[in-house]
Amino acid sequence: MGSSGSGVTGACVEALIARVEAEERGAAFGARVAENQRRVFQIAYGVLGNAADAEEVAQEAFLRAYQKFASLREAEKFRAWVNRIAFRLALNRQRGHRRRLARDTVWHVAGTSDAVDGARSAEERVLVQRLRSEIESLPEKFRRVLQLSIVEEMGAADVGAVLGIPAGTVRSRLHTARKLLLEAMK
Amino acid sequence: MTKACVKWKEQLLEAALTGTAAGDLEEHMKTCAACAAEFEVLQARRERMDTMLPLVARGAELPGEFRARVVAAAEAESEQKRARSVGGWVLAGATAVVTAALVMGLLLHWRAAPTVLEAELPAAERLAEWRAPSDVLLQIPGQEILQTTPRLGESYMKVPINTEEE
Asked: For residue A22, which residues of chain B lie inside 8 Å, CB to CB?
């Protein structure tokens, strides 16, 4: 009787500890999501130009981060990892969209971008749409750097960490990208 | 911008991006109204571009419940994964227990099957030694020879017949 009682108590304690750990983990993860969600969303949106798609990509990136959360407890590690994953997921989704659009080429003209959500006036919307279009025309290595550099809180080191290039290279490519864009925006 | 000023195009772009004109370009613009005007245009365009660029990445705001939704989805997915994992272990354990039970049962059955009960043993021995009285009638001449196995190199004809009983 006594041993059975202590067994039950032990199981209860273990269950309680597991529950507390899960709650702590959930709270810590929630805090990381709150710190990074805006930036992660913008990374995806900068590539995709569609809020719904960007939101899905952001969610997917965080869900993957949760699976590796044990090794991503440090804020900096989490930040760098989730930035990189979000960017990769967004690029993958964009490629998927392009393949589908290439298949249904007749309907491509209308486009699916709502890239003007952040712009205020109609003139701004047109300008933002044009900027997006010109960015898409840039050579890939300049385009990627620019797409990441325009995201809030993304410094050259952060962009370099996502792309796997030094911060100096990021700055150099960003300068060239801006020059090409300035010339294109006549 | 005149044809002669095309060579300043690159420097004008650089100057517009950095906000400062190099010495020779600055000197040139003092005497070239077209390049000075172009510089002004490029600078204005660059300022506008820098204002607009963040908007390319800044889409609609994330919904307020985004964080809660992500955390709930992550925990649900983790729970499902854990349940699948536990289910797998339970299934593997159950399979191992059933297999062990089957093996034990077969072993016990195999060991018990040939065993003769102690009480039945004398009766079984008597039965093994029993010969029917009519067996004498079935004997044929030379049967003793046939019942004795010759050694290697011998033939049935040379095997000595045990006649002591006779």
From this structure: 75
